[in-house]
Amino acid sequence: MSELPTNTPKISRRKFGKVSATAASAAFGFQFIPSAAWGNLTKPTLVAIGAGGKGKADTAGCEAAGFQIVGLVDVVDAKKLTGEAANNRRLKSVLEVRERYNDVPFWTDYREMISEMEGKVDAVTVTTPDHHHFHASAMAMKAGMHIYCQKPLTHGIWEARMLAQIAAETGVKTQMGNQAHAEDHMRRCVELIRAGVIGQVRDVHIWTNRPIWSQGFAKAPAKQKVPEWIDWKQWVGPAAHVDYNENIAPFSWRGWWEYGTGALGDMACHIMDMPHWALMPGAPKNVTAEQSGATDISPPINSKITWEFEPNQYTHSRGVRFNWYDGYLDAKFDPKTWKLVKGSEEYNHPSAEVLDGRPFDDYGCVIIGEKGKMFFHRHEENWVINPSTAVDGFTWPAKSIPRATNQENYDEFYDAVVGNVVKCQSNFDHAGPFTETILLGVIAQRSPNEKLEWDAEKMEIKGKPELKKYIQRKYSKGWKYKV
Known about the structure:
Elements: H1 13-28, E1 45-49, H2 54-65, E2 68-73, H3 89-100, E3 106-107, H4 110-117, E4 123-126, H5 133-142, E5 146-150, H6 157-170, E6 174-177, H7 184-194, E7 201-208, H8 232-236, H9 262-271, H10 273-279, E8 286-292, E9 302-309, E10 320-326, E11 332-334, E12 339-341, H11 352-355, E13 363-369, E14 373-377, E15 380-386, H12 409-418, H13 428-445, E16 452-455, E17 460-461, H14 468-471
Parallel strand pairs: 1-2, 1-4, 2-3, 4-5, 5-6, 7-10
Antiparallel strand pairs: 7-13, 8-9, 8-16, 9-10, 11-12, 13-14, 14-15, 16-17
């Protein structure tokens, strides 16, 4: 763009986008024009699929990065909220987003939005329950829209494989929402592990105190009348039907196999991210789950998962094991309050030997190599190597991973969309296989105390055809999707 004459008042990029959008609305009858059509003089346009809770943060983060928000999608029509629902913290967040962007179109069905906005919008965020991630992302990518999708990337392994395939075929920019992936200290630790700061790695231990929501129940709560403010049929979408109850949505869906993926699906994309990225172990050979409190419809109250991988240049000659721990050890599900009740504050975690007697937080990880251990927390920059002598004589490597603007994954997504960077580091080519590994652990939770042998090429668990339904699920009527 040419420079403004010296006697012309300067207009900020943010204000210029708003002025241009207003002019476009007037000239085209509220028709949105993607930024590419303007020669990138306006902001790239974005529609948020999922406006409340984490959706509020994703929408605000993308706007702050430089996107223009031109539409909202949510099954909750917050302007219809009444009574106690109007004071629910999570539901109120949907209303706050609606009020902030009160001049943009609103839909309860993202399929309608994608159909109407194809060719008119640059990007979307997908911040929905897990069981909608695949359909929303696949449809939007095929409509040419760049995708920022929350973790886990999908509800099932086949879905993760297909999203990576569609991303490659369409060439759109993609990003999974494991936010700390953009932080400098994570990228630096990836570089250090690959450079051999603790030697070849043989074991990784990762833990979280979650679930903190209802989990381990054996039957659905009693049917309640569907409130006017929620499109319940759309909320259920491609999954199996369940009658509405406030103990399912807006929050506790994570504790349902049909809609969420439990503590493992929720947190592993965050906590396992750094060591998995650093070691690039490929597909696991096998996975085993030990657990307590699981039922046919709900994930376990606590569990330990172990994946085994073949050796590579960064790992021990026998390969590497990833060990996952979640949940409070003596928690019980209380059907009267529909909550987990903890008998104590002790949650599942690695042994004192693994931790070297160090105190531990609600979540974290330990990477064990031949020369020592790295203690890492995704939101703390003071990572530790023990013993400290492991770094004696170590040659500190140069930076090899591009750094994200402002250490923000929303900024990295924006930079990819406008062409400032080639790709996001947590793009679907990376996030797809990572999510597959995590979801294989979710399947192990549904077949506990068995070592499941994984054939990644065939996308099957050897000798276990009965588990195929968890790899590629069947969709409800009207939601079948052919890639």
